[in-house]
Amino acid sequence: MGYVRSGSKDHGRRNQIEGKLTPGERVVVIEDLISTGGSVLDTVAALRAAGAEVLGVISIFTYGMAKGRQRLAEAGVKWPGCWPSGTTPPTKTGSEKENEPYEPSH
């Protein structure tokens, strides 16, 4: 597990990425909120520059902005979506398979 800053520290080792990252390592980026995708794309770019294979991103919330979805797609970043801000995740009705992922509509 690691942490990616928006920029390199201006002191110490001047790291932008904290934690162990081996070139070729497969990672998933966890983001709290995605709107236009700018911040998460900066994170993906830093990880890719360090040699990571970014499998995709997940987020807790989104504003559901088309621009964010478009920018992530253009950058080749998989994002399965999440629950739009201000909504409640659905509950299982019993008809869904237990291991079936929730697929939000965009």
Radius of gyration: 16 Å
Total beta strand runs: 5
Number of helices: 2
Strand ordering within the main sheet = 3-4-5
Which sequence of SSEs, written as H and E, runs from N to C? Answer: EEEHEHE
Oligomer: single chain
Query: What distance lies between the first and last C-alpha atoms, to the nearest angstrom?
Result: 30 Å
What fraction, in percent, of the residue positions are helical? 10-25%
Describe the structure.
With 106 residues, this protein is of the alpha/beta class. The chain has two helices and five strands. The strands form two sheets. The protein has a three-stranded parallel beta sheet, covered by helices on one side. The longest helix has 12 residues, at 38-49. It starts with a strand and ends in a 22-residue tail after the last strand. Residues 95-102 have low confidence and may be disordered.
